[in-house]
Amino acid sequence: MSITILDGPVGTELARRGVPTPLPLWSASAVDEAPDTLAEIHRGYAAAGAQVHTAATFRTDAWTLRKLGREGESRRLTRRAVALVRESVPEGHRVAGSISPLEDCYVPASSPSLAVCREEHARAARVLVEAGVDLLLCETFPHPGEALAALDAALEHTLPVWLSLTPGPDGRLISDTVLIETLREAARRGAEAVLVNCAPLAVLARLVPQLADLDVAFGAYGNVGSPCPTEGWLVEDEELPGPYAEAAAAWLDCGATILGGCCGTGPAHIAALDRLAKDWKKTV
Question: Can you give the residue ranges of every domain in the chain?
């Protein structure tokens, strides 16, 4: 069984280095404001063992930039974010273009109409493909309709497409049944892989086993710590990589083949996943 290691969050690492990640751009602000730090973070994840690296395009879409009167900068920011990854990681590593919910990832009711979602995500996917990504990662979607609209837009291109849903930090943004059925539909439509992300380990322990019968590659990248309205994310000292890797081992037991980290994790967590994957291969 081949195991793919994703990188971890850019935003958390920027915050740890004292780089502001203000709304609405979050980590995308670093593309212009702290490109050297962003490149250093990408290099750190590569050194930790990540094989797939997500560009800081989570908020470089025209919809978000329109709020700042900067809609025309979407293509430039996206291209630069992708180039920063490509310049920072070894040849042969894959670069993923992040396609995110148009509004708040933790407020599914804020999702615009499906017609708007289709149009905006189609635009974002085109720009990412033009920027030269290797795969399209539709991630952190709490709204089933918008998630599938983003997936359909991404599938218009020839690149592999992954879809990841989030049940949120309390696991209640979307029911287990709806989450699994949405990912089942995503697999039917042509997603290469389905995942769950941006959720604590306890929630992922409940959800990941339910992905095993979807007849498609699957995985997870979870949170440690908790959301904070002023700081973005808080991580306690005791939330170490070891317990995270132990939880991920249970995902492998279920048949998961894609492992990574979301908010609160860092290169040490990715390194622990890489060691886990290498040990796992020795036993199978």
Answer: 4-283
Q: pLDDT tens-digit profile of 134-161? A: 999 999 999 999 999 999 999 999 999 9
CATH number of 4-283: 3.20.20.330
Q: What distance in Å separates the CA atoms of residue 199 and residue 212, rounded to the nearest whole number? A: 18
Of 131, 161, 164, 130, nearest in space to 146 by CA = 164
C-alpha to C-alpha distance for 267 and 172, rounded to whole angstroms: 28
| Rounded Cα distance, 229 and 242, in Å | 28
Structure tokens at 121: 């995500």
Residue 245: half-sphere exposure toward Cβ, Cα within 13 Å: 19
Closest to 118 (Cα-Cα) out of 132, 140, 138: 138
> Model pTM greater than 0.85?
yes
Question: What is the per-residue pLDDT across 85-123, written as a single tens digit (0 to 9) for each?
Answer: 999 999 999 999 999 999 999 999 999 999 999 999 999
The Cα 94–Cα 280 span in angstroms is 22
Separation CA 196–CA 185 (nearest Å): 15
Arithmetic mean of pLDDT over the chain: 94
Amino acid at 267: P
Q: Identify the three-state secondary structure at position 3.
A: coil
What SS3 state is found at 178? helix
